[in-house]
Amino acid sequence: MSSSLVQNGGVSSPAPRAAYIYSEVQSSRIDHALPLPSVLKKPFKLVDGPASSAAGNPEEIAKLFPGVFGQPSVQLVESDSSSALPNQKLKIGVVLSGGQAPGGHNVISGIFDYLQDRAPESTLYGFRGGPAGIMKGKYVELTPEYVYPYRNQGGFDMICSGRDKIETPEQFKQAQETAVKLDLDGIVVIGGDDSNTNACLLAENFKGLNLKTRVIGCPKTIDGDLKCKEVPTSFGFDTACKIYSEMIGNLMIDARSTGKYYHFVRLMGRAASHITLECALQTHPNITIIGEDVAAKKQTLKNVTDYIVNIILKRLDFGYNYGIILIPEGLIDFIPEVQELIAELNEILAHDVVDEDGLWKKKLTSQSVQLFELLPGAIQEQLMLERDPHGNVQVAKIETEKMLIQMVEADLAKRKQEGSYPGHFQGKSHFFGYEGRCGLPTNFDANYCYALGYAAGALLHGGKTGLISSVGNLAAPVEEWTVGGTALTSLMDVERRHGKFKPVLKKAMVELEAAPFKKFASLRNEWAIKNRYISPGPIQFFGPTSNSLSHTLILEMGLEV
């Protein structure tokens, strides 16, 4: 293989990163040794559990996945060498799917090292550019020299990612042709809920055709909404939240130093508020809006604005004309009246041309018209943007933090005229998004991802398909982590998209009765008025906080922070 070019399904492409352009910190991370759960360091066997069901609508899921539905999840257990997996040369493909998350390179490194350690002379192919790489046959053979510079590094640029899906008959046929051409024993799909749904569809398709290629998923998303009892967290969440919390901590010090700004911070998390909740637990802001809480209380946009305004007024009584406010990216999706407006807009945009004369507004209900007119002009425009591939509003493009600033500003200006607000409000808007997706993974994410990848290799070696790599007991030392695979169909429900029912991995939302939210709820009133700010500082790789877990994970495991 050339040192400057690698073959990419017949197309030349640039060689991987050169380690010599790394900072000292990056360089020190490459050779940082990663511990493995003890079960992965000894002979092991795969033990099946009971038959699985589905997260919802099991009858429909069974119809959609007749080949893989109901199969058991599995656990890796220590074994004597006579019952361990046999030596076998494997050909495995790996693909990164969806948005970036810190630790993805370590999943690939874990798969690679598993093959080197347990199935010598095996081959690992990296499909370039996401699922499109599988369909178009764009791949690179991964070698020790190719993989080395990416160990413990952020990003997905080892093979890059993409958001394409394998869903049409032609696309499935292309994937089948690639699997046969490369004589693949398995494919590992590293992705979020949609990507792992796609992985299960691919596993079902291959099994129905009696192809030997099996498919295993890995849980990736910084949003933290891909998890269940067997999959305690998705990788990348820990790193992203610590990056955002450092930035929030910096803003807290700025706010206290200047004494005149309210920083409105919108955080990643389109469908669930896990990141916002975790960052609140790490930093103790004055106001945190949790979307699931807003939905449960059936709050209106005015209710949310009033809540913020009331705290601003109370803080002024204590002499504080500044503060920190955290907002989840998908907030507007949780407000019932906004949901109704969006649903009506979706129907209009799907079937009608939006005319400049505004005649389309006559198709809105009177309540939705009133709400639409209440919104700032920029937000009105953002609500009318083209929908995403799932038919959803692109909430990442809706600047909710700016909308709330304008609404709070208008309310306080009115109060000032009436003489009930003596202060001077200055709002500053921030969106912390992509900044958290490609940082150097924390020790936790580096270790977790490596174990996930190693486990994925073991599952394929054991002939399993339609499972997601699962590593548990995460509050214990790495050596005591449990390892297995969970049936992807057990995480599924059906959802209506583009007028049809489709299988989806059910998103894990913030549970208002669970320990993380309860902890936050018990403290938010105190944080609102008193400055209990915590500035966590940058991610540490050595020292007392280097192996700390997220507050969410600790609390969900029944431990105290």
Structural commentary:
The protein has 561 residues and is an alpha/beta fold. It is 39% helix and 16% strand. It has 19 helices and 17 strands. It has helices at residues 24-30, 58-64, 104-118, 131-136, 144-147, 169-181, 193-208, 237-258, 274-283, 291-296, 301-317, 331-334, 336-351, 366-374, 377-383, 400-418, 443-461, 515-529, 551-556; strands at 5-8, 11-14, 44-48, 74-78, 91-96, 123-127, 139-142, 186-191, 214-219, 262-267, 287-288, 323-328, 427-432, 467-472, 482-487, 492-497, 500-505. A nine-stranded mixed sheet has the order 3-4-15-14-9-8-5-6-7, with helices on both faces. α8 (237-258) crosses α9 and α11 (301-317) crosses α16 (400-418). The radius of gyration is 25 Å and the shape is globular. The N and C termini lie far apart (50 Å). The relative contact order is 0.17. The model is unreliable at 1-8 and 10-14 (pLDDT under 50).
Summarize the structure.
By secondary structure, this protein is an alpha/beta fold. The chain is built from 19 helices and 17 strands.
Mean pLDDT across all amino acids: 92
Q: Largest sheet, if any?
A: 9 strands, mixed
| Amount of helix | 25-40%
The value of Rg in angstroms is 25 Å
Relative strand content: 15-25%
Distance between the termini: 50 Å
Query: Shape from CA axes?
Result: globular
Unreliable spans are 1-8, 10-14
Which structural category fits the helices and strands? alpha/beta
The tally of beta strands, per DSSP, is 17
Strand order of the largest sheet: 3-4-15-14-9-8-5-6-7
Q: Indicate the multimeric state.
A: single chain
* Total DSSP helices: 19
